[in-house]
Amino acid sequence: MPQKRENTSERKKEHLQICIKRDVSFKTKSNGFENYEFEHYALTEVEIDKIDFKTVFFGKKVNYPFIISCMTGGTEKSVSINRYLAEAAKELNIPVGVGSQRQALEDRKHLDSFKVIRKEAGNVPVLGNIGGAEIASAEKPADLIKKLIEMIEADAMVIHLNPLQELFQKDGDPSFKGLLKAIEKTCSSIEIPVIVKEVGAGISAAAAEKLIETGVKGIDVAGAGGTNWAAVEMIRNKNNDPYFREWGIPTSYCIKEINKLKKRRSFTLIASGGINTGIDAAKSLALGADYTASARIILQSAVEKKAEGVVDLVKNWFSAVSKVMYLTGAGNLREFAKVKLIKREDFF
User: Fold this and answer.
1) I need a labelling partner for 146 at 20 to 30 A (CA). Which of 33, 85, 237, 239 fits?
2) Among 38, 15, 25, which Cα is nearest to 251's?
3) Is residue 91 domain-resident?
């Protein structure tokens, strides 16, 4: 008798609880930002109260170069969480993503957990989300994506890559054969931009270049140093593989290497993976990211303090970023992208 496959909604429910309550961070590997220091500029003439973070996200004006990353959906509890995230995004006027919409393709039971984002977020950019494995196996990937876009009136579509997680997930699907071709077909068939992100193991410059060649408009590095999805699955399966639990490329390295592609390619670079402070956000922007993004700490803030907690967190982070900009002589984001970061080893 064939073994019953795991229910997607139940898996999402477990994922949510583990990310909220358990330690799923890396043990021996960090995001790498501690290896960099800002070069102090004693001659600053920046008026700190006039620093403006406004920028444009694929044609829509936003107030901060920050994205509430794709997190949840497909469970009863995620309705209220996504409502808080959407309310915060609307107040801050920043982009917000939904969790993987795979569950919504299986049944309509938790459709409201996805639709609530657009309903409460107003006109801010909303990001759809589906896994690379689903795209690779779809007969008509563009038609699948169009259905997901319509579901939440998405302004951009995120395709997430999670080969490490799939390896350790019960009933996981580690087959990504045909993925690049499916992404290319999708990019040429839909009207909104496609963003490709990892989920915590990072995207290398070589992978990023191939993705950009397919027509992808955004790369979210989602590097090592933040939520560890191999650890999440190992907790669920009650096993542990210490080597693969620490697998991945640190976020700072991903940003630095992929940023080099901007000399000959046009794309939006998003930094996520262990962005847990305003200083992390500042360093990611100075290393070359156009936007920074975060998930787990935002999720915990939403659960504990609702939308207000998320708004306060993001505003406090960018208060710290403005102080860094002031002390490095950068009056705007364009100038800040040219600020010098020093490797700590060069101090000594």
Assistant:
1) 85
2) 25
3) yes
Parent domain of 113: 8-34+65-312
Residue with tokens 């096993």: 239
Is residue 111 situated within a structural domain? yes
> Does 52 fall in a domain?
no
Nearest CA to 179 out of 211, 222, 143, 220 is that of 211
Name the strand (E) or helix (H) holding 89: helix 77-92
In the numeric block, the tokens 């998405």 are attached to 154
- Mean pLDDT of all residues in 15-20: 83
Q: How far is it, in rounded angstroms, from Cα 95 to Cα 117?
A: 11
Q: How far apart are CA 219 and CA 214, in angstroms?
A: 12
Q: How many domains does the chain have?
A: 1
Q: What is the mean pLDDT of the chain?
A: 93
Which residues does residue 161 pair with via DSSP β-bridges, in sequence order? 198
Average pLDDT score over residue span 108-112: 86
Structure tokens at 136: 């690779």
The reported pTM is 0.94
Task: State phi, psi for 209 to the nearest 5 degrees.
Answer: -65, -40
DSSP H helical ranges for 190-250: 205-213, 229-237, 242-245
CATH number assigned to the domain comprising residue 297: 3.20.20.70
For residue 168 the two structure tokens come to 């350790």
What is the average pLDDT across 288-312? 96
Q: Is residue 123 part of a domain?
A: yes
